Amino acid sequence: MEYARLAIYYVLFFFWLLLIARIVVELVRSFARDWRPAGASTVALETVYVATDPPVRLLRRVIPVVRIGGVGLDLSIMVLLLVVFILMRLVDPRLG
Fold first, then answer.
1. Is the pTM for the entire model greater than 0.90?
2. Which of 16-20, 82-86, 92-96 is predicted with the least confidence, judged by mean pLDDT?
3. When comparing pLDDT for 35 and 60, which is higher?
4. How confident is the prediction for the chain on average, in pLDDT?
């Protein structure tokens, strides 16, 4: 049972890292609109988006975009980060 919890914890941790990578990429793309990944980074970013897109899309259907003036704030990724973090804490084998 301990090994199963540890495996689930590491899968959630890896997914959490992918979400952080997606947030960083989206921030870079919002500030540098003409930036396009090339070479191996294209494959890496495609992997990040393929892994994180289904749960993000699901939450985007449920959580509306918050409008602040002329800017739309998408909270779905932040909510997903929080949910994954809470799940990580629940299955953390070090906490018993």
1. no
2. 92-96
3. 60
4. 90
Gap between the terminal Cα atoms of the chain: 11
Phi/psi for 73 (5° steps) reads -105, 115
Burial of 80 (0-12, 13-18, 19+ CB in 10 A): buried
Q: Tokens for 80? A: 């997903």
What tokens were used for 69?
Answer: 């003036």
Domains of the chain: total: 1
CA distance linking residue 73 with residue 95, whole number of Å:
35
The single-letter DSSP state of residue 63 is S
Strand partners, 68: 71
Domain range for 35 is 2-95
- The CB-based long-range contact list for 16-19 (8 Å cut-off, 24+ gap) reads 16/81, 16/84, 16/85, 16/88, 18/48, 18/51, 18/52, 19/52, 19/77, 19/80, 19/81, 19/84
